[in-house]
Amino acid sequence: MKKLLGLISILGVAVLFAAATSPAAPVGIGAAQLKLGLLKYNGGGDWYSNPTALPNLAAFCNNQLGTNLNVGYGTVEVGSAELYNFPWVHMTGHGNVVFNASEADNLRNYLIGGGFLHIDDNYGMDPYVRVALEQVFPETKLTELPFDHPVYNQAFRFETGLPKIHEHDGGPPQGYGIFHEDRLVVFYSFQSDLGDGWEDEAVHNDPPEIRQAALRMGANLIQYAFEQ
């Protein structure tokens, strides 16, 4: 029953988002204020990285897209029924990621029921998150998205795909996805470090144009997920 209610909740907030971003909608509708989620997982990885990232992204979307997002965020565990209360969930870290069978099942049901997961490798997470995702979607693999995919062509255009925010191993930034019934349900940003670019300016001292690129790409992901 909780899962069913959660799926209804996801559909409901998607409708509210559409209403809140309509040109005719009042900006301050309290019922339409959504909150982004931060995924808490086991395994020892620092899921709590970048604490100022989501508030800044929400504020940027409110300013640039006309959304009415809560500038706070909610921390939610992978296996919790509360996951279904968040239409868009962010996952990050530098290390190990472990899902047990129940958590993998819960995350899968959330995603196929209308939820969206953005995973951002903060460096060192890649080999672990790929294994974890295979538990969630054993029938499909992460595939790199072409530059003409809609996630790169929302309010802001990224003609060459993901922006490079921080350098790690010299590789190009890559955006991967997992699809369910032709709907993108997981977007994985690798060798980009979008979340670092969302943080307060004083945290990493990134140039304004780098932070702007990161926030614009994040806004694209939110707009894409909520308007599908």
Automatic annotation (TrEMBL):
InterPro entries given for it? Answer: DUF4159
Q: Which keywords label this protein? A: Signal
Report whether Signal shows up as a keyword of the record: yes
> Domain DUF4159, which positions?
36-226
Q: Give the top-rank taxon of the lineage listed in the UniProt record for this protein.
A: Bacteria
Q: Which Gene3D superfamilies match?
A: Domain of unknown function DUF4159
Leader sequence segment: 1-24
- In Swiss-Prot or TrEMBL terms, this protein is called DUF4159 domain-containing protein
Q: Which organism is it from?
A: Neolewinella antarctica
Lineage in the entry?
A: Bacteria, Pseudomonadati, Bacteroidota, Saprospiria, Saprospirales
